[in-house]
Amino acid sequence: MKVHLILANIFLAVNLHFTGSQAEHQQSSSAENEVVPLKASDDRSEDAAAIKGPVREVLAQSGSTAILPCKITDPGAGTITWMKLRELLTVGTNTHSIDNRFVVMHSSTDWSLQIRAVTLQDAGIYECQVTSHPVQRNFVRLKITEAYSIIPGAPDLHVKQGSSLRLECQLKAAAESPLYVFWYRQGHMINYDEEPGVKVELTKNGSILMVNKTKPTHGGNYTCAPSNAKPAYVMVHVIEEEEKPAAMHGGDRRNVSPSILASNLLVSLLTVISWRIPSLTNLYPT
C-alpha cells in the first residue's frame, strides 16, 4: 500500500512539472509574436519587432518636400491610411492630422504621402496600410539631412592685387541641387551687379565666383547663401602693390647715386646763398 502511495506522489509531481513547463513555453511563444509599438527613438532594434516586411528608405533635405511611396496591386482593395508611430495622418485622400503639411498624392495604384517643408522631427518610420483581408502594410523610413556649405580657404584668404580670385561655394550633406546661390560682399548682393571682371556661375553642388583682376575694393567679407543650405563665409584680403623705394620719396639715401646727392647739395647751397645775399635794390638805392 505504501509503495502504491509513493508511486502516485511521484507521478503527480512529474505531471505538475511538465504542465508548468508547457505553460511557460506558451507564454514565451506568445511574447515573441507580440507586436511591439514603435517608439520615438527610431532605433532599428526596436523597429524590427513591429515591422513585418521590407522597409523602403527615403532621404530628404530639411526644408524640402519629401515623397513617401505606397503602391498597391488592387485599386479597390480597401481604404488606404498613412500612420506614423500609431498616429493617424491620412484616410483615403483626406488629411486626418491637424498638420496640413501631410497630403496624399493619389493616381491609380499610387498613394504617395507628401510632406512639405520637412524638419528633423519628421524623421522616422511611416506605415501605409490597406484595410483589405488580410491587411496590407507597407513601411517607409524617412531620413532627414541638414545641408550646409563651405568655402575652401576660409576663414581668411589672401590674394595679390591684380591677380585672379576664385571662390567656390560647396554644398555638403545635400540631397538635392540648390535653386540658386546668392553671393554677398560686405552684405551687398553681387550676383546681378554686372561688375566688370566679376562672374558668378551656378554649379550642380554650389556656385563659383570669379574675379579676373582683383583690386583693393574687392577685399572684404564674402558670403555664399544657397537656397537649401546654411551659408558660408570667408574674409578676402587684397595685398596691394609694393610701395616704391624710400629713396624715391626722399627717405633713406643710402642707395642714392653720387650724382643725385651732389645735385641735391648744390640746390641746397644756392638756396642758402640767395637767402643770405641782400637784394641789389638794397645795395644800390635809386
From TrEMBL:
<dbReference type="InterPro" id="IPR003598">
    <property type="entry name" value="Ig_sub2"/>
</dbReference>
<dbReference type="InterPro" id="IPR036179">
    <property type="entry name" value="Ig-like_dom_sf"/>
</dbReference>
<feature type="signal peptide">
    <location>
        <begin position="1"/>
        <end position="23"/>
    </location>
</feature>
<feature type="domain" description="Ig-like">
    <location>
        <begin position="152"/>
        <end position="235"/>
    </location>
</feature>
<protein>
    <submittedName>
        <fullName>Protein borderless-like</fullName>
    </submittedName>
</protein>
<feature type="region of interest" description="Disordered">
    <location>
        <begin position="24"/>
        <end position="47"/>
    </location>
</feature>
<feature type="domain" description="Ig-like">
    <location>
        <begin position="37"/>
        <end position="145"/>
    </location>
</feature>
<keyword id="KW-0732">Signal</keyword>
<dbReference type="Pfam" id="PF07686">
    <property type="entry name" value="V-set"/>
</dbReference>
<dbReference type="InterPro" id="IPR007110">
    <property type="entry name" value="Ig-like_dom"/>
</dbReference>
<dbReference type="InterPro" id="IPR013783">
    <property type="entry name" value="Ig-like_fold"/>
</dbReference>
<dbReference type="GO" id="GO:0032589">
    <property type="term" value="C:neuron projection membrane"/>
</dbReference>
<dbReference type="InterPro" id="IPR013106">
    <property type="entry name" value="Ig_V-set"/>
</dbReference>
<dbReference type="InterPro" id="IPR003599">
    <property type="entry name" value="Ig_sub"/>
</dbReference>
<dbReference type="Pfam" id="PF13927">
    <property type="entry name" value="Ig_3"/>
</dbReference>
<dbReference type="GO" id="GO:0050808">
    <property type="term" value="P:synapse organization"/>
</dbReference>
<dbReference type="InterPro" id="IPR037448">
    <property type="entry name" value="Zig-8"/>
</dbReference>
